[in-house]
Every structure is written in structure tokens, then in C-alpha cells.
Specification:
The protein has 19 helices and 13 strands. The chain is α+β, with helices and mostly antiparallel strands. The protein has two domains: 278 residues, Beta-lactamase, CATH 3.40.710.10; 110 residues, Serine Threonine Protein Phosphatase 5, Tetratricopeptide repeat, CATH 1.25.40.10. The N and C termini lie far apart (104 Å). Helix 2 runs parallel beside helix 7, helix 6 runs antiparallel to helix 7 and helix 15 packs parallel to helix 17. The longest helix has 38 residues.
Length: 480
Amino acid sequence: MKTLENYLKPLMLVSVLLFANLAFSKEKAQQMADFIQEFHNYKQFNGNVLVAKEGKILFEKSYGYANFEWDIKHSKNSKFRIGSITKQFTAMLILQLAQQGKLKLDEPLATYLPDYRQDSAKKITIRQILNHTSGLGNYTQTKDFGEKYSRNPYSVDQFIRLLCSDDLVFEPGTQFRYSNSGYFILGAVIEKITGKRYQDVLQENILTPLNMANTGYDSHSKIIKYRASGYANDLAGYSNTDYLDMSIPYAAGAMYSTARDLVKWDQALYSNQLLNAEYKKQMYQVSNQRDYALGWEVKKLDKDQYGKALTQIQHGGGINGFNAFISRVIEDKLLIVILNNTGGAPLTPMTNGLLNIYYEKPYEAATEHADSILYKALKDGGIAALKEKYAELVTHHKTPRERTINYFGYELMQMNKLNAAVAVFELNSQHYPDSANTHDSLGEAYLAVGEKQKALISYKRALELDPESESAKNAIKQLQ
């Protein structure tokens, strides 16, 4: 005969286990909070972070300010521009049209956009545009894009004619090249087929059905409650980011959202609410050229590291003053969302760290950036101290990346610290002597301080290393 104690023992065991799991979850959440706090302390991140499993939030925290001028702190309601995360929504709208029989993914662009230049449109398929193998260029890399084009409003047709109609850069289907121009064109395809504006189709087909009330197509003129301001983050500190007219990112990057709304998006992708199983499968089908599918990057995580096969489906987004990242581990229905409003936060290392904390694996803590370390040395002890600190970093096997130091040099030039910039570019070219870019940048710095003979030598070296360098050719021509 069972006693009361016999009945209570299993219940006590369950209670102990539940308490242990709860305590463990709190420990993980604190570990995640501390991990992200270090990035914030180094002024590398300012925004919101969320980790969820099966739609249930495990960790959520806000860091810093939605508006620095008014000292308004971030909250769970903060709305961020999400840049190229917009592309997965555009891809979803295209796939929905395909599911409805209004479009075929492997038909040429010319079928749906007859006004686009036909020599290219007849070669490119919709699928190739979706997975960036179309050969289309990238309008954001247009010369003087920021100064000449980015602040002006355009109609869809105007912008396509102006900046999305260049010659193809390779034969469609043979290479991968990320193309904002391609996704801008997909927005035009959606409008052509539906007879509606892109933003209206987005609202009707995705945002309203999912009750994503805090997500939308951004516009400078709209009053958007809890909209975060965007900032540049450089050596001199935070500053208001450059204005960008939102007609330009359009279907390639004009959306805003919150971390919590992206949980709704994540969960909908596990259901057939928006898309049937067949088209969802195609959405994650990568091309032969890159681990990029239709609006998503698809990666297989290291089985040895995590103890089982895991698939990470993710995408980042960057736009003036903001960058964002969404990462989904499909097998465990795990979601990581990071939204930042101070320029280029290191979102991939942050995502990897949160992922490893969740799976109880080793992770790399935040470290101060090399340019920040060197700038402090410059302020404290001048150019000599900067050089000494650089040598110290090299000695301790923490050699700064070429790109990091190159960018640092240009920041110093913008701050009119020209002699310091020359010193930085000299260090970079000495440490990376086979890089045309380091010598080209050094030539530019020499010119800025009037050292024309040294500039000519640097540009000639850059041209030796890269015979196709137009900047080096033009500089040499002018100097001679």
C-alpha cells in the first residue's frame, strides 16, 4: 500500500527539476546579458537583443538610447530600420505570387517587366535575382551615390532607369554577387503583377495576417511612435546619420520592425500560414555559387561542435545609422534577433556568442577595437605613442586587420589629423606590403599633406600590385 510519502516523492522530484531548469535559465540569461553588456561598454552596440525558442522569449534586453538628444532609452517597443532583412519579406511576396500561379521563378524577368532593358531581362530569371546570381550590379556602389543620389525621392520607374539598368557584370547563373538593384527590381515586379504599391502588398499579405502591428514600410514623413533615431558611430563619438530617402532602399531595405514582431515572423515561417511546404522548401534552397537561398543565407553548423546537425538560416541588414540581424536554428526553433541604431555593430560575433551560450559552448567575449585603442594612444601621447601601441599589438599577436586600419586612417583624415593619418597608412602598408589598397590610401594621405613625390611612389606601387586600379592610374596621370 502506497503511503502519502510515496505519492509526494515524484511530485517533489518534478518540483526540484523545474526549479533547477528555471535557475539554469536565469543563469544563461544573465550570461547573455553580461556578454552583450561588454559590447555596449565598448560603444560597439546600442539597441535591443532577443533570444526565443518556439516563440517563447528566453532573453530580452535593451541597451542604451533610442534618442541620444532627448535621453530616451530603448525599450521593447523601439522600432528600428532593418535594412536588408526586408529582402526576406520581398522574397516571401514573390513566392506567394508563384504559389498563386501568377509568376514562375524560372521565367525570365522580361515576362513580368517588359519595360526593363530586354537584352538583360531576357537572360535573367526571377530565381536568379532572388539568390543574387543574376549578374545585376548594386546601385549602392554607384560612384557618388551618397552625395548625388541618396537624399532624393524617386519613383520606382525613375530609379530603375537611373541606377538599376547597367550592363550585367557576369553571365546570369555563373557567379554570386549581392545586388540591391535586383531586389529593387523585384519590388517593381510585385507592383506590376498585383497592380498595387509594394508597401500595400506587404501590409496585406504579411504584416496584417501576422498581426505585425509594429512593423512597416518606413518613410521620413510618417509619424511612427517609438521610432529609434539612427546614428553614426566613429572615433569622435556619436552623430546623427546622413539622411536617406526611403524610396531608394524600397523592396531591398526600407522596412522597420521590433524584436518582438520578428518573433511573430519567425513563428509564421514554421507554419503554412503564408506559404505552403513546397515553396518554403524552395525558399531555403541555396544556389550552386553560394550558401544563399531566396532572401536567406543558409548555413550548416559544425556537427562536432554542437553535438548534432543544426541548420542556421539568417540574414543581416545595414542602412544609414542602423544594422540588424536575424538568425534562426531550424531544428531547435531557436531565434536570435539583434537590432542596433548606432551604425555598424559586430552582429555576427554577437550572434555567435549568444548561440554558444545557449548551447553551453565556449564563446569569445567582446574586445576593444584596434582603432579605438590606437586613437586613445594618439590622444594621450601623439603619433609616437600611436606607433608604439601598434607595435605592442603586433608583438602580442593582435595585429589589426588591414581594412580596420585603412578605415581608421580615413577617419583621421576626416578629422583633419593628416600627419597621424599618414603614420597610420604607413604602418598599414608596411604590414600589408602586397596590398594595392594600402599603398593607394597612403598615396592619398601623402597628397593631402603635400608630399607629391612620395604620393607618386605609393600610387605606382599600388598600380604594380593592381594594374586595373583606376584611382592609381588617375592619380599618377595627374601627378606626372
